[in-house]
Design goal:
- This protein is of the alpha/beta class and about 625 residues long.
- The chain folds into four domains: about 55 residues, no CATH class; about 240 residues, Rossmann fold, CATH 3.40.50; about 90 residues; about 200 residues, Rossmann fold (3-Layer(aba) Sandwich).
- Helix content is about 40%, strand content about 15%.
- A seven-stranded parallel beta sheet has the order 5-6-4-7-8-3-9, with helices on both faces. The protein has a six-stranded parallel beta sheet with strand order 14-13-15-16-12-17.
- The longest helix has 23 residues.
- It is globular and about 85 Å long.
- The chain starts with 6 loop residues before the first strand and ends in a 10-residue tail after the last helix.
- One of its GO terms (molecular function) is helicase activity.
- It comes from Graphocephala atropunctata.
- This is AAA+ ATPase domain-containing protein.
């Protein structure tokens, strides 16, 4: 049997019909098949393919993401951001003074000073300057998403006042991250109290949130096609559409006669003429009754026309990094040279640098990177790639340069959000000191919020039971499970109180899950799976007694310690961990604050973590 490794490129799909040249044998072998796929097959010249023989194709890997990374690197040479990408010092242009109290969107008034400064400074820079990269970073719970929304709303306000144009590309490495911000923007737009005119939004790619589905590009296109079908069948609809098109034609003709209103460059005039021609053709079709059912090539062309129109008129385009440069986006933005006010990348510290370069193929000249370089970076499996720095994000590379510059200069381009709203101050204290140079403040509401919570906010429980050889500590797992059960059975907590267990090793996770069962409503997960999430109570099972191993990474430890809102309980045998400088600092800090306890595996742990005033209420 001949086996050939090839690169397969799919160019077109179409339904199986009477006009398709499909082998009768294939129809019999695949009676449920519904599509015919046209594709090109790239193979080595010395390995000829017998086209007369039946061929079965097995997919090994989708390399489109890798191809996009290579394409982004290749096209970086023509990006307006080339110089500042390659050399951070080229990003050191002075910014004009901004009054933080004038011409602010009402939403900005609710932000704290560090958030407000980041929003107003970056928004003003994106509207008045170009060829710059702006960094916005801060600890978990500091309101990075709120800052992104504030930045978009501030730029929208400027657009409505005629102070600039607005077309924002909003990106993130994951669908979940994009959908989270997109839903907030939808809610803000629908809230009548905000008195915010409706900005046009569109979501590119696959959404994982049902609240977003109506604003995906595919769903908007389908609604427009349905309007076309309605016009076929309804005379009143036909008249209304004709009136709308006549008005659009008049507007386009006026813009063509007065190009100075929006700029008279050749590309603009060509685009204007294309729109005018398409509108005139649509009017002629309506008047002559030539509006007909679209199918085949005409349907594909109509879809492409609608996609371009929707993207041209969108104020906010949201997509994952891997999906932001496709044929739709390239045709609507890059090829038609439509300017983007800026590209905002959320969770930018979780992206490898080539991924962050993908949006630049659309002609981006202002890049806003949002994230936390003290959290986990992108996952890179190749040790050689790590050695050459692929794991490091564009954000981290630029921030490291800014950290060496005078603070006044750095603060103009690198904005630190210094107030966290998630953790009880006792939980946030050591991470602030060790990871964030003692610069993180806890909002004043956090301590009072936890006043009536039964557990102590921060406790480190040290035991002496050893782990087995397979990165699992049976006795520690049992201790953690018993503690969770006692918390649930104590009747001291609201039914809505959430509990999470974090452990760095899969075998320990499996052990705890098995012992815990499904009735406790507790999620057991790895450090990586908990990044970006939070719970009222977090129990951190460290496991390690032989060497530091997986727990030596400071970013991984930071993630584990910053997931809890009300109470963080760390459980472990720290004999080997305390040899590591980071862990030694954590343990010494806990001892100085008198929150470190020595416990035995058979001991009742709830009494060690409950607040003294609640102790007599334990069942």
């Amino acid at each position: 049997r001949q086996r050939i490794l090839a690169y397969l490129y799919t160019s077109n799909t179409r339904p199986i019909g009477s006009h398709n040249n499909v082998s009768h044998k294939l129809k019999i072998q695949n009676p449920r098949a519904t599509l015919v796929v046209d594709f090109s097959l790239y193979i080595k010249e010395r390995m000829p393919l017998d086209r007369s023989a039946d061929t079965r194709i097995a997919v090994l890997k989708n390399i489109n993401p890798d191809m996009r990374q290579f394409e982004a690197l290749d096209k970086l040479s023509v990006s307006p951001l080339l110089d500042v990408i390659c050399d951070p010092k080229m990003n050191n242009q002075p910014l004009p003074h901004v009054d933080l109290q004038r011409n602010l969107h009402p939403h900005i008034a609710h932000l704290n000073p560090s958030q407000k400064k980041a929003v107003v400074t970056v928004a003003n820079a994106c509207l008045t300057q170009s060829n710059a990269i702006h960094l916005i970073h801060g600890p978990p719970g500091c309101g990075k998403s709120e800052v992104i929304i504030g930045l978009i709303l501030q730029m929208w306000l400027a657009k409505r006042r005629g102070e600039g144009s607005m077309r924002i590309l909003l990106c993130a490495p994951s669908n979940a991250a994009i959908d989270d911000i997109f839903v907030r923007l939808i809610n803000f737009r629908q809230n009548k109290l905000t008195k915010c005119a409706k900005y046009n939004m569109v979501r590119i790619g696959r959404s994982e949130n049902k609240n977003v589905s109506g604003l995906t590009l595919d769903s908007i296109v389908e609604r427009e096609l349905q309007k076309h079908r309605n016009i076929q069948d309804n005379e009143e609809e036909r008249k209304m559409e004709l009136s709308h098109l006549e008005a659009k034609k008049n507007q386009l003709e006026y813009q063509k006669k007065h190009p100075g209103l929006k700029g008279g460059d050749e590309d603009y005039l060509i685009t204007l003429q294309e729109k005018l021609t398409a509108t005139e053709r649509a009017i002629e079709d309506l008047k002559s009754g030539r509006v007909k059912k679209l199918e085949g090539r005409e349907l594909r062309e109509k879809k492409r026309e609608l996609e371009v129109h929707i993207l041209e008129n969108a104020h906010i385009i949201a997509t994952t990094l891997s999906s932001c440069f496709n044929s739709q986006m390239a045709h609507a933005l890059s090829l038609r040279k439509l300017n983007l006010s800026c590209c905002i990348v959320d969770e930018a510290t979780q992206c490898i640098e080539p991924d962050t370069l993908i949006p630049l193929m659309l002609g981006v000249n202002n890049l806003v990177l949002v994230g936390d370089p003290q959290q986990l970076p992108a996952t890179v499996l190749s040790q050689k790639a790590k050695l050459f720095g692929l794991e490091r994000s564009l954000f981290a590379r630029h921030q490291q340069w800014w950290l060496k510059q005078p603070r006044d200069a750095a603060n103009n381009h690198c904005h630190f959000l210094n107030t966290q709203y998630r953790m009880h101050p006792a939980i946030a204290q050591w991470p602030s000191e060790y990871f964030y140079r003692k610069e993180v403040l806890s909002h004043e509401s956090l301590e009072s919020r936890s006043a009536q919570f039964p557990l102590q906010p921060y406790v480190v429980l040290s035991h002496e039971r050893s782990q087995s050889q397979d990165e699992c500590n049976y006795h520690e797992g049992v201790m953690v499970v018993n503690l969770v059960r006692k918390i649930r059975e104590s009747n001291l907590f609201e039914s809505t109180t959430t509990i999470g267990i974090i452990t760095p090793y899969n075998r320990q996770k499996d052990l705890i899950k098995k012992k815990l069962g499904s009735k406790q409503n507790v999620e057991v997960g790895s450090v990586d799976s908990y990044q970006g999430r939070e719970r009222d109570i977090i129990i951190f099972s460290c496991v390690r007694t032989e060497g530091v191993g997986f727990m030596s990474g400071v970013e991984r430890l930071n993630v584990a310690l910053t997931r809890a809102r009300q109470s963080l309980i760390i459980v472990g045998n720290f004999k080997s961990l305390e040899k590591d400088t980071t862990w030694a600092s954590l343990l010494n800090n806990a001892k100085e604050r008198r929150v470190h306890r020595y416990v035995s595996s058979s001991q009742e742990l709830l009494s060690e973590v409950i607040k003294p005033e609640w102790a007599d209420r334990i069942r």
